[in-house]
Amino acid sequence: MYDFAIIGGGIVGLATGAALGRRYPFARILLVEKEAGFAQHQTGRNSGVIHSGIYYKPGSLKAEMAQAGNQSLRAFCYEYGVPFDVCGKLIVATTPEEIPALEGIFDRSLKNGVPALRLRPEEVKEIEPHVACLAAIRVPTTGIVDYRQVCHALVHEMQQQGGELKLGTEILQVVPTPLGHLLETTWGSLETRFLINCAGLHSDRVARLGGMEPQAMIVPFRGEYFELTPQRRHLVRHLIYPVPNPAFPFLGVHFTRMMDGSIHAGPNAVLSFKREGYKKSDFSLRDFTEVMTYPGFWKLTSRYYQEGFQEMFRSWSKAAFTRSLQRLVPEIRAEDLIPSKSGVRAQALLRDGNMVDDFLVMEGTNSLHVCNAPSPAATASLEIAKRIVSKVPRPGRLSLVKRA
């Protein structure tokens, strides 16, 4: 019998396990992950950015947790010797039409308390000589890190605390019991007093196994990247972002310097035909059918079909992808770009076609389900974990009363 069982070995699940161990050092804590290693999906395939929180709606959980997470993650990395670099980023306007939106982002930075500086084109050239723009904002608190290394540090912390971690263990069934939950897995039965679902791309399915009715369904969007050839890495020094299109809920292709010195360009955002579909050819009949029969998907498509076609065209046309990058760095050529690994974003989508824009956590009987943890979830992972731990009962005081 475990006091707490966590499903999912990404950064949110691991951070939650470590946070539980710090708060309840004598509790029996179990974390199960269906893959053979940790951080195999969203965590290990993101852009590695430590976000500042500049974009998010003031007062939202995203804004609050991104800012707090920016600081707590850096402190964690410093404590555990995980390399990181607070290199800052530029948000650049390349057309006159983007100037008002850029000013809106600057105003939001003031409301969110995120340091930001307006820059003229000649000032931008001092930081990024190859960027073409009419105006820009510099965000000095944005950084980069390898989130896989952060996860390795969290695994080490859990092990030092006495927590148990089981890899290659998939959840097949969740059965309520008088004492909590019985978990039927590919490696046998496990029992826990309290269940925490951090299953990412499969969080809605795990919630249903636990008897919950999620407000939204996970729809997978694949983000495809290129990276610059080593000879052309000098064209980008830090992080360069466009002004996001307010009519489209994704940031658009941008340049990111990684911890290994490589420069990644992307991502675009296209529907994936498989929840873990990292290649264009990946297909799951179950995943595809769920999306195609979900009313929310078609309502979303009717709203963003033009942008969606542009993303699909850019997915299949390297020339179109290159043109998007040339808006930021005109010297980029198609031959400078080589394919890089893709990622899949678990986007929670409501039946009315609206994307869940903030963190979505559902509380059930002796259970808690993280049903939407979009970017900046990696940056905010330690803060998300603190909030989760604040919602779980102390060991020995677990109740079968459904929490409000």
How large is the radius of gyration? 21 Å
What is the number of helices? 10
Which topology of the largest domain does CATH recognise?
Answer: FAD/NAD(P)-binding domain
Helix content: 25-40%
Characterise the protein shown here.
The chain has 404 residues and is α+β, with helices and mostly antiparallel strands. The protein folds into 2 domains: 1-86 and 143-214 and 357-404, FAD/NAD(P)-binding domain, CATH 3.50.50; 219-350, 2-Layer Sandwich (D-Amino Acid Oxidase, Chain A, domain 2). Helices cover 31% and strands 25% of the residues. The protein is built from 10 helices and 22 strands. It has helices at residues 11-23, 61-80, 99-112, 121-127, 147-161, 203-209, 285-292, 295-316, 318-326, 381-391, and strands at residues 2-7, 29-32, 49-50, 84-85, 89-93, 117-119, 135-139, 143-145, 164-166, 171-177, 180-185, 188-197, 216-223, 226-228, 239-242, 254-257, 263-266, 270-271, 337-339, 343-350, 360-364, 367-372. Strands 1, 2, 9, 10, 11, 12, 21 and 22 form an 8-stranded mixed β-sheet that branches. An 8-stranded mixed β-sheet has the order 6-7-5-15-16-17-14-19. A hairpin with a 2-residue loop joins strand 11 (180-185) and strand 12. Helix 1 (11-23) runs parallel beside helix 5, helix 1 packs across helix 10 (381-391) and helix 8 (295-316) crosses helix 9. The two termini are 25 Å apart. The model is unreliable at 398-404 (pLDDT under 50).
